[in-house]
């Protein structure tokens, strides 16, 4: 029986790091993102493992739903009864970064779609499929410390991450009440050396007042390596004692 991971935002940063380690550990990876990572294809080949990429605009609900159905269909062709399915809701955006009075409606809608609606759709659909087919699953939402504290210029990001933390707790409670084999958790990876951090550091102080703090973290080499953070998450989801509904924080492990 095969373990399978579905990962959004798989082409770079934390998503690519998680996929790399899972492939190396014998887990088949089905990646969803706009662009592909040829590095992952090479890693899969080296480890005689399955890696498939599905191009998708994760800000369009119809595309998200259709892509998920394609993924599940393709999985069924390989493994009728997977040992475990992991869903890693990694794709997210920090933009728009600006004072709330300056943000445009279309930017807010795109942000909420990617950070909140898409992970909800994917998690809901996986839980439904896993329950019907009696396949154990662990769904992960990549959250942030911004979910728990207000940050000037990040009204959208703080709000969407906070909403996903509560979604995690509520859906985990529902699964407990239904006595399924599904678990839903959130994982705060801390501040990593990724493309998102480059975007944050490029902000102007009028839009994002904490920009100097993030520039200093880069200068002091205080940003975490995504592969190390990915290893922590994989240890958590492989632990039989993983707690349903828990908001895990990388700083408790590093």
From TrEMBL:
One GO location term (cellular component): cytoplasm
Annotated InterPro entries: Biopterin_syn/organic_redct, NAD(P)-bd_dom_sf, Sc_DH/Rdtase_CS, SDR_fam
One record GO biological process: tetrahydrobiopterin biosynthetic process
Family annotation (PANTHER family): SEPIAPTERIN REDUCTASE
Species per Swiss-Prot/TrEMBL record: Oceanobacillus piezotolerans
First-tier enzyme category under EC: oxidoreductase
Compartment list: Cytoplasm
Main location class: cytoplasm
Protein family membership: Belongs to the short-chain dehydrogenases/reductases (SDR) family.
Single Gene Ontology MF annotation: sepiapterin reductase (NADP+) activity
SUPFAM superfamilies: NAD(P)-binding Rossmann-fold domains (SSF51735)
E.C. number: 1.1.1.320
Pfam families named among the record's database cross-references: adh_short
Protein name from the UniProt record: (S)-benzoin forming benzil reductase
Keywords, ordered alphabetically: Cytoplasm, NADP, Oxidoreductase
């Amino acid at each position: 029986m095969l373990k399978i991971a579905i990962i959004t935002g798989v082409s770079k940063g934390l998503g690519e790091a998680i996929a790399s380690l899972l492939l190396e550990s014998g887990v088949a990876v089905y990646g969803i993102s706009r662009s592909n990572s040829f590095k992952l294809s090479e890693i899969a080949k080296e480890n005689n493992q399955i890696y498939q990429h599905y191009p998708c605009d994760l800000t369009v609900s119809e595309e998200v739903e259709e892509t998920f159905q394609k993924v599940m269909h393709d999985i069924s062709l390989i493994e009728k009864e997977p040992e475990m399915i992991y869903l890693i809701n990694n794709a997210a955006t920090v933009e728009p970064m600006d004072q709330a009075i300056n943000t445009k409606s279309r930017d807010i809608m795109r942000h909420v779609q990617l950070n909140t609606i898409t992970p909800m759709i994917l998690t809901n659909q996986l839980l439904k499929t896993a329950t019907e087919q009696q396949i154990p699953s662990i769904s992960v939402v990549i959250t942030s410390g911004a979910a728990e504290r207000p940050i000037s210029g990040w009204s959208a990001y703080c709000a969407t991450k906070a909403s996903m933390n509560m979604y995690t707790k509520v859906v985990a409670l529902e699964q407990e009440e239904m006595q399924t084999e599904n678990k839903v958790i959130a994982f705060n990876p801390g501040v990593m050396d990724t493309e998102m951090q480059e975007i944050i550091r490029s902000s102007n102080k009028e839009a994002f007042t904490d920009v100097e703090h993030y520039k200093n973290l880069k200068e002091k080499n205080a940003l975490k390596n995504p592969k190390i953070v990915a290893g922590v998450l994989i240890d958590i989801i492989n632990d039989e004692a993983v707690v349903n509904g828990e908001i895990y924080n990388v700083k408790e492990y590093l």
